[in-house]
Amino acid sequence: MASNKKYWKSVEELNENSSIVEALQSNEFVEQIPVDEFLGDKENLSNSSTSRRDFLKYVGFSTAAASLAACEGPVIKSIPYVVQPEEIIPGVADYYATTIADGYDFANILIKTREGRPIKVENNSTEGSVTGANARVHASVLSLYDNLRLKSPKINKKEASWNEVNAKVKASLVDAKVKGGQVVVLTNTTASPSTDKLISDLATKYTNVKHVVYDAISDSNALDAFQAVYGFRALANYNFENADTIVSVGADFLGDWQGGGYDAGYAKGRVPKNGKMSKHIQIEANMSLAGANADKRIPLTVANQKLVLVKLYNAVTGAGVSVGSIGKLDSEVEKAAQQLKAAGSKGVVVTGLDDFDAQYLVLGINLALKSEAFNPSDAKLTRKGDAKAVAQLVADMNAGKVHTLIMSGVNPVYTLANSKEFVAGLGKVKLSVSFSTKEDETAVKTTIAAASSHYLESWNDVSITRSNYSIAQPTIRPLFNTKQFQEALLTWNDNATPYYDFLKGFSAANLGGKTWNQAVHDGFVVTAIGSLVAQGGNFGGSASKLAAAKSNGLDLVLYSKTGMGDGQQANNPWLQEFPDPITRVSWDNYVTVSKADAEKLSLENFNVANGGLNGSYATIKVGNATLEKVPVIIQPGQAVGTIGLAFGYGRKEALKEEMQTGVNAYTLYANGNANQSATVTLADGEHEFACVQLQRTLMGRGDIVKDTTLSIFNKANEAGDKEIYNPTPVVSLDHKEVAATSVDLWTSFDRTSGHHFNLSIDLNSCTGCGACVIACHAENNVPVVGKAEVRRSRDMHWLRIDRYYSSEETFSGDIEKKEGSTGLSGTISTLQEMEDPSANPQVVFQPVMCQHCNHAPCETVCPVAATSHSRQGQNHMAYNRCVGTRYCANNCPYKVRRFNWFLYNKNDEFDYHMNDDLGRMVLNPDVNVRSRGVMEKCSMCIQMTQATILKAKKEGKEVGKDDFQTACSAACSSGSMKFGDVNNTASDVAQLLEDDRMYHLLESIGTKPNVMYHVKVRNDK
To answer: Which CATH architecture has domain 728-799+849-1018?
Structure first.
């Protein structure tokens, strides 16, 4: 029988009106411990002299102190739908196929939405898609929620209605027609047939309309060369999976060369199968992603690269064009030429040199080889810019010939080297219009700033290649008073048809038999195309011109960074904080120089007491253009006599203050040519970098990154002895050496029932592109902390991509040098030498995240059991339990746990997307937003694995063998990352677990990780 007695501890409790009792009922302590005075203030905390030990003494380990240290998470009240949309089920994601086409990046993608909000980009894996979303594409969803977007149109910097805008433009078009003035439509490469048709209709209605296509980073020389051979402006396509020998001369085809997207095909040939893998020779000035992945890399100046092309042409065709020597590397080039000739149709040559003759000659070489990897028939249509036409436009503007200038998707005030001339010409134009998502450098100087819709708010069609016709569909209604450029064109053409209806009707002829609904559902259609026949050409003439190339001063090679591209997403904090794959520097661009040139110019890099990387400033001069205060990075592998500088930085308009970083490389982009002669001088001052990886060499990390040569790999397989290249680590047990994997400190439980997740990473196919890093940010609500915090090693990335250099020219040379040292002084001297990377090091990329150890050292030291292990193999974090002791981070041998020093959500100290309501729309509701004072790390995307299990359960079927995914594995277009259930023996990951190349990081310490790696195999020299 239940008792109805009243129990009490204090007489005060009997007083029903007591304020003390009321306070105690809701709070353990009436007065809270005042630690918020310094925990909540970044400046006070960084300047505080209170040690961690004193802090723990101060707050103790009581329940209240634990709550304070972890900080109570925000309470967010949800409001249910009054009328629930039929297509939306709360808590269940919807996916829409669409296409990104921003003038620089083009790809078929899927957009994940939650309750009507686009929150993540995924690859469209449907067969035939042009996919391979890079880091920028994955980050583009955040740009939708940019609080500095242009929210409505403006006329003379004052808000206006669209009716006013359209009336003003139409009046100007009529006036220009009457007066015979030029009307110029200046756009980026839209690759949109329907948009081209609308511009053509405008030109028919107003006969003085001219369409000029302008790409910020120009491929004009390559387009001119292709047009000379095939009769129209496009870029040759390449199927690298069909090549046995790849020779690249200055083309970063694993980066942004020709729009990228080649890593999937390349990776197929780079994983050793049946004793074979493709051979990749890279000849370049800047250290690039392609160069870092090459079997053989030859650093050369731009002039010498042109001589190399002539040598390749002579070897392949038997021509006798006279060409000089390139010095001590001549024999290496001759060897590469003979290997290319021997490959025949299985060989291919690509070049990124910004020179018509170089581009033209490469087409000739591939035609002579009859290269199976060379695919001009399915040409890429994503670059159409014409540098000569743009130069003529600027001249016409300044001559007063242009009456009306209508721009869309371009920012020439920022991207043109002769920006001042363009601005002067704008002043002579009667009416200027800029369609832009931002009030950027150009929009603030035009008569009309027309607020353009984001691509995720728009309909469109895109011809990425000749065979690929794609449809872009909106995934959310326009957030602001914006319109598509195509809607405005229809209005100016007096066409009342909505753009959706126009597009649907126009596309009928391009759908190849598919219905409109099917094309929208799939995101694209593949259409039949005819093969192209070369119209011939004077390739020998181009070879003779290239043979006369000579260097004049330092060769400046301008390039696009993997994270920033052409700079249109410069206000995207995910991309600003994204560490460059090569230098591992975020929040900056910089001039890269070789160590030899740095010593001549008195330029230096050094680390300061807090571990931060500092460097000199330089002044760069190209012709009459000067760029001052350019930070310097001394880059291993940079060709002597060359320097590199990335586009995309140095912007000021429509950017938050911290995003206004770097220098504007377009200033030096004379005539749209990325290869210039420059002079460099030391400037005053010292620059502070935010670099996330200070180790510059492999330096004794041979058990972390394992690599071998193809010949050793094949011999070991013939002998059936993988120990030759992938030795099993041993430990001492009872004074005998035994395999480390056979010894356990703990009794293991049975993991064979249910699911058990593993992640496999193949070092051969990982190109270091970093798409996985941004995908992880988007999926898991990883905060951006800013340059100052990154510099303090407080970056919050759950996934990092370590980049290692060799100190010798090969990693095996590192091992031989280390093992060859004798005596204490000799060993110390050798190790000091090995800290200095080779002038031309080999490079390897290694993604590292929480290894989800079955015997996890973090779990044994947590005093509050905040971290624990699941039967499914995932290492869990209970954020509400964590009190921030950081014992787990100290005990983690992989250093993959991040301590959340500050509250990044709704905090004006961190002025990024998480501190405003619009930016927070990108957050994934399946993953909680962590408060300050807790440890966080990779969760192996537990929300995704559980969603897959629940979906299969609901459908009453088993999970498919490869249905499980993580954000990183889904984003990896090269196939390096494979995720799945090892208890399903048919899964890819279960088979990879048994592969002879498989190994675990730091296997000798017995952590038994659930992340595995595969030995990197390189071709012999």
So the answer is: 2-Layer Sandwich (3.30)
